[in-house]
Structures are given as C-alpha cells and as structure tokens.
Specification:
Number of helices: 11
Distance between the termini: 30 Å
CATH topology of one domain: Arc Repressor Mutant, subunit A
Radius of gyration: 20 Å
Helix content: 55-70%
Largest sheet: none
Length: 218
C-alpha cells in the first residue's frame, strides 16, 4: 500500500521502499539466539555491488506497477533476508563465537536467551540467577557445566560475537557498535576485542571483508 508523508521544507521528494518479511517456520534456536533484535545490513560496508542494480529494479517495479511486480518483490525479499543473515552469521562464525546448541535445562536456557537478546543490559550474576529462579551458586555451577563457560564469560563472548557480526555487515562506527554490543565506549570494546582475537575491531572488519567468498554476492 502506497502512503504519502509530508514533512518539513521544500527540498526534493524522498521515496522510501519498505516491506515486511514473515517466516513460515521459526528460525532454529542456535541461529535465533545469536541474532540481535535489530540487524543492520549496510550494502556499502559489505561490498555487495549487485545490490545497487537490484534496488534500481525494485524502484522501476514500484513506479511501473506492472503485472507480476508482487512476485518480484517477494523473490528479492528472500534474497535480501538470506544475504543479511549470511553476512552477519559469517562475521560471527569467523570470530569463532557462535551460540551453543539448544539447552534442555529451561532455567539456563532462559538466562542464555536474555544474554543474547539483551546484550547491552548490565547483567549481573545475581540478576541472571534470579531470572533463572536459582541461587547464585547453583546458577553458576549449572550454567558452567551445561554451557562450557561461566555466565560472565559467556556474556562477553555473546557481546563480542555480535560486535563481530556488526563489523562484517555495517559501516557503523566502532563507538556505535560498542554501544549495540553492550560496551560503554569504543576503548572498552577494543580492549576486549583485541584480548579475544588478537587484533582490534578495525582490523577485524578489514579482514572479514577481504576473506568474504568471491561468490557471496551471487
């Protein structure tokens, strides 16, 4: 449905192409818990040159309203979503910090989901244990046995994994990515990132783009 919004001055008219995408089946838990609530996908940052002509095609279809336009929109939406997910998950996979498999313990699963969906929250052991309905000692012991890392260590890995995904898919500044991943500033993210990977975030971004498969945009 077309809509017109009038705001502000007398400059050139800006057109926005918006759309929605619904999944017939939910994403598997290991994928769903890794993704942030808002996934930014910056075509310029990923170097996907095929996106520009595809957007031109969409513009022509939207303006022309020819028969079959809706089918084209649906197919292109599939491509956009698949490429965005692939780029983000590849960035995280290169970091070696993918989420663990599904957890059978509902209390620990609840805690890990909170970490993955709200990485910027200032989680504490006491708060996570309370969310899990366990004592601090029981929570830490059970979490470490099932996940393989203590809770705060896992939270750090989640945050760094998400930072790596954003570095590989957007041109956002290190400061912006730091805040998205739950760090106070660029310096704190850079310090943690370099300690984990041996290179600063900027170098990781360069390496992630340079090692992207040549056919990733096809």
């Amino acid at each position: 449905m077309d809509a017109t919004l009038t705001y502000g001055g007398r400059g050139a008219t800006t057109k926005l192409l918006c759309g929605g995408f619904g999944l017939a089946e939910p994403l598997p838990d290991p994928v769903r818990t890794l993704l942030p609530r808002l996934l930014l996908f910056d075509a310029a940052a990923t170097g996907l040159t095929w996106l520009a002509p595809v957007l031109t095609l969409l513009q022509e279809e939207a303006n022309g309203a020819e028969p079959g336009a809706q089918a084209i929109f649906a197919k292109v939406a599939d491509v956009f979503v698949a490429q965005a997910l692939r780029s983000y998950l590849n960035g995280s996979q290169q970091a070696g910090l993918l989420a663990p498999g599904p957890l059978l313990d509902p209390a620990i699963r609840r805690a890990t989901e909170l970490m993955h969906t709200q990485p910027a929250h200032r989680w504490t052991i006491a708060e996570l244990a309370r969310e899990a309905g366990m004592s601090r000692t029981a929570f830490c012991t059970t979490f470490t046995n099932l996940v393989g890392d203590p809770p705060m260590r896992h939270l750090a890995r989640v945050r760094l994994s998400m930072a790596a995904g954003h570095l590989a898919t957007t041109s956002a500044s290190i400061h912006q990515i730091a805040r998205l991943a739950g760090y106070d500033n660029e310096a704190s993210l850079s310090k943690a990132f370099k300690r984990e990977f041996g290179i600063p975030p900027g170098h990781y971004r360069t390496r992630a783009l340079s090692t992207r498969p040549a056919n990733a945009g096809t």
